[in-house]
Amino acid sequence: MSFKRYGIYYTPPPGPFADAGATWLGWDPARGDHPVPPPVTDLPLPWDEITATPRKYGFHATIKPPFRLADGRGPDALETAFANLCAARAPVSLTGLTLAPLGRFLALVPEAESTELCALAASCVRDLDPFRAPASDAELARRRAAGLTPLQDRLLQSWGYPYVMEAYRFHMTLTGKLPKSALAAVTKVLESTVMQYVPRPVLIDALSLMGEDEAGRFHLIHRTALSG
Prior knowledge:
alpha+beta, Cyclic Phosphodiesterase, Chain: A
């Protein structure tokens, strides 16, 4: 399969946590299929509408945001560089994850900040940047239309994305934007469908190289252990 963009994510290892996230979102990047939707009730909006935006990415936390390959850079070279990066970096342990609103969407976020995790993400952004094609004028304009701080704009110009390095925040998105009135009800459903499967601690001991197909769905290419 050929891919139009690549990204580096954290994805859970095979097991109940990964299955719960894939079932809730309706897309499994590891298997490349659509799980049967969860049998949930009491949602204030249709399940398909709640999960439509994050579905194509699958259950993940972004480490290096999706990017197009630079001219002269091929997938094989990217895979080799990714493997070398993982071999040089150590695993990171998080005490746990909690469900929280980020603006108007819901996501799993670390219970406590981790400088080690931020350093891991920064190294991926920096070390693999030679493989990233520069952002187009249209991409820059689209990002800026959302309203960026001066720091975020500098990061956008340097790395092609405004929420990296100093502005990075690890999160595993579970919904699209919701009306404020719906947040509490969706939170309650997620506590029983996803939160009960969150492990303690959460060990970030591998990273996933992902590829985006022509339909906009992301697929797992390699999940590689952090062995540094």
